[in-house]
Design a protein that fits this description.
Layout lengths: L1 E2 L5 H7 L3 H6 L11 H8 L4 H8 L3 H8 L5 E2 L13 H4 L4 H4 L6 E5 L1 H5 L5 H9 L6 E6 L4 H7 L4 E9 L2 E8 L17 H7 L4 E5 L7 H11 L6 E6 L6 H7 L3 E8 L2 E7 L1
Parallel strand pairs: 1-2, 3-4, 7-8
Antiparallel strand pairs: 4-6, 5-6, 8-10, 9-10
């Protein structure tokens, strides 16, 4: 398998599970990969470039550790325009952090929500969109929320992350200016679900995630999309509309049509 800065960690681990220990050996920041739950949450969303920023190391460090396992390196590495900047770009503590005040800081602790298997995405996005220019949102989590930063930062928000312990990470967001509203359903298709279903008849890849616990449904769906043949659609049987998945689909260039047929029963048709 050929590697580049935009290769996702999940793809590497699926190719060769021994890559877990190879990546962990780079430095202690990657020890979370040994935790199956955190591995499922993070690996499918993070590229080598993103991981290098988190671990304060070089992309080349990954290449050096993975090449002995049979991986090769692209001769001309590509760069993901949506990737979060490397550590050098966000090393300095932004000015707004020096002026933090308790009355203007909105604290949202999502650790219990995630531990219960619930999705905090809509709650977070609602808080982000309600921020006034004077306010700062502090998200308390057990890991750096890379996908959230990737969604919010391009909309005119500064951010800063503090790692205060192995399971305590605080990420702060503040509008740089007026700040554009962060849309959460921009990838939802307006086309009729049943008409799309007929159009893709004979070209559907079914997947049922109703019995899976978070974050397995999203991990499984994104994994299936990585190998979805051109011209086919993924037909998902879900318990609910997966709001946190929608911006991930947008990043990958997919559209989704949704049909809610009853309590705890939702059909998704994901296609390009």
């Amino acid at each position: 398998m050929e590697l580049s800065a935009t290769t996702r960690i999940s793809t590497i681990l699926r190719e060769n599970p021994a890559a877990i220990e190879a990546i962990v050996s780079i430095n202690k920041h990657f020890e979370k990969l040994r935790n199956p739950v955190l591995r499922k949450v993070l690996a499918s969303r993070v590229t080598i470039a993103d991981a290098a920023r988190i671990g304060k190391c070089r992309v080349e460090d990954f290449y050096e550790k993975l090449e002995p396992l049979g991986f090769s390196v692209a001769s001309k590495p590509t760069h993901n325009k949506r990737a979060i900047p490397m550590e050098a770009d966000v090393l300095e503590r932004p000015a707004f952090m020096a002026n933090l005040s308790q009355e203007n800081t909105i604290v949202l602790d999502v650790r219990d929500t995630i531990a219960k298997g619930d999705d905090p995405f809509l709650q977070i996005m609602d808080a982000v969109n309600k921020l006034s220019p004077e306010q700062v949102l502090c998200i308390v989590n057990t890991f750096e929320p890379i996908p959230l930063i990737a969604i919010v930062r391009p909309k005119g928000f500064e951010y800063y992350t503090e790692t205060l312990g192995p399971s305590l990470v605080k990420t702060y967001f503040k509008k740089q200016s007026a700040g554009e509203k962060v849309e959460v359903n921009q990838t939802v298709s307006e086309e009729n679900f049943d008409e799309l279903l007929a159009r893709y008849s004979g070209k559907l890849q079914p997947i049922d995630v109703r019995q899976m616990e978070m974050p397995q449904p999203m991990v499984s769906i994104l994994g299936a999309l990585e190998t979805l043949p051109e011209g086919e659609a993924l037909y998902v049987h879900h318990r609910k509309v997966p709001q946190f998945l929608l911006p991930q689909l947008t990043e990958r260039g997919f559209q989704v049509s949704i049909k809610e047929v009853g309590p705890n029963e939702v059909y998704l048709l994901i296609y390009r």
